[in-house]
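Checklist before submission:
- one chain only
- standard amino acids only
- sequence pasted in full

Submission:
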Amino acid sequence: MEETPRNAASRTGAAYYPHGAMVLVFVIPLVLFLPLGLLMLGLGMAGKGDSVTMAFGIFFLLFSTVVLLMLMGYRSQYLRIGEDGLSIRLPPLGNKTVFPWALRNLTIRWSDVRAVDVKGRELGGRQRVYVLRTNAGDYVYFWPQWPDANIVTEEILRRSNATTSFQDMNHPADLDPANPNAAKSSGGERFLRGCGLVMTIALGVMAGCAVLVLIFGTPEDRWGAGKALLFVMLGLAAAHGLRRYRTIR
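Returned file contents:
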């Protein structure tokens, strides 16, 4: 009989790896921007493009390198359910990026698992962030990378008798009405969201100017405006993430 995800999660010694939607989030831009970066850099070095073309080529290659490293980090994560506890390779809570060298390898006894907290948020769709709290530290894994993560969470809770809670990160004030100070944003969070707002306004103006050039400009100007518009679109995506930024606690 074919093994179901629930049976796989509950089987002693089963290893659980990230895959699914989040891998595509890294693979798609890697496939798009790595060849584009090589092409633009090659055109610039061959004298068939200007300095702007070379600059974009270098930018896309650097961006592709970062994406590749993050993909390697996500794919090297695992969570293994054992008879006596968990073996994990996960990022500690607070890591902003998941590069391979930022992950922690650890074996945790069931008695050392304190809680598995669930954080709900809206960021490119409804997401759930699972935080594994242990006596050795707090570690995090995300729904997009871990299909059926709720099944694994149920198994951890069943074996460890740990507690669990849910927090809607889009409405932190509703988390604990008796302790409103716990929901206040930190200065760093407010600063990053403010930067996101400023970036959105500035890039929106730049996008509008680029569109006007594309409509009314000369063919030479349109080529430059098209490249600039592509860069602006990437910046707007980053700015949107900053505007919604909230630290997972």
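Reviewer check: The longest helix spans residues 187-216.
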